[in-house]
Amino acid sequence: MNGEQLVVRVVDLVGDAYQIGVAQGEEILSTGLAAQLELLRVMTRNVDAEKAKGILQDVSPSLLQELHGMADAMKMDLDTVIRIYSGFDYPFPDMGCTALAQNGYYVRNYDFSPNLYDARLVFAKPTDGYCNVGLSQQMIGRLDGMNEKGLVVGLHFVNSEHRGEGFIATTVVRMLLEQCANVEEATKLIAEIPHGYCYNYSMMDSSGATVVVEASPEQQVIKQMNPLVCANHFETGELKGLNRATAENSIRRQHYVGRLIDEKMSALSAYHHFNDGDSPVFFHHYEEYFGTLHTVVYSPEDLGLIFGVGENCEPMHFSIEDFMDGTAKLPESIRGIIKQG
User: Are strands 290-299 and 105-112 parallel, antiparallel or unpaired?
Assistant: First the structure.
């Protein structure tokens, strides 16, 4: 198949927050991620590190300790690392993603640019939080993920023009995965976190409960949805006025996925449908920050994960339980193909 190869590293992190931070700082220095440092430093030079530090101390002290570890490993001052990696008051480009949750599984495509993609599938076993697996962004953040209790969370960008002083969604997802056991706990915590932009958060837990939290810097609105279908626009009357003027693509994707509910797909068939390069929910516009980078299926009941990179990728199967008990055989990387449309 013609196209560009995309390689996602598989990373396992075990220890307390500081130790995990040290491991990630060393990873940055030893991989291509170090090349982004100067650009990220410029992009975040106006971030108020002291304010971010104070908020993290209240809502996620373990993440603050992780940033301490990263700073020590990279031999950088803590304030600089907080500015670059905490996700507080951070400028972030548009992205897309489409999710469906039903029949005990949650399937999702993530659409963005490979140039700004961490390309890391992270298995983490912190001593001070729930074990979890997910795709990272800005190292400490998560684009989507599932924890040992079966809570699944994914983000869906809505609008960057309406913003406030707060965290980007990737940091929010990470906090929820490490601190919350179910949808109820997650919707409570998300209301305590300052939000920088407009995002949807789609969630599912081991009981089968599914919700979408529509979140702006000013308020969060909870939508009970079962089955759940979520894309990149708000639907509630309180927030739909904050949608981008060009939300038609998101609306079309949501309507299409809604029609898939009647097909009663299994988790594996849902993976193949979303990962098919010809699927209406798979995109090839990588230069416009809207190309599908990964397809993932989380199964909260058995803590299983199906994952693939790029299009028509042979699915990889993983288990959080295997990772927790030390029997998981994790590859060093997963490869796939992306083709510019």
Answer: antiparallel
CB 100 within 8 A of CB 153: no
Which bin fits 46, alpha (ψ -120 to 50), beta or left (φ > 0)?
A: alpha
Where residue 43 falls among pLDDT bands split at 50, 70, 90? confident
% helix, strand, coil for the chain, step of 5? 35, 30, 35
DSSP string, 53-121: HHHHHHH-HHHHHHHHHHHHHHT--HHHHHHHHS-BT------EEEEEEETTEEEEEEEE-GGG---EE
Report the distance separating Cα 225 and Cα 258, nearest Å. Answer: 12
- What does the block give as tokens for 52? 């971010």
Full-model pTM: 0.95
Residue with token string 């919350």: 180
Give phi and psi for 211, each to the nearest 5: -145, 155
8 A C-beta contact, residue 9 and residue 121: yes
What proportion of the chain, given as a percentage, has pLDDT over 70? 99
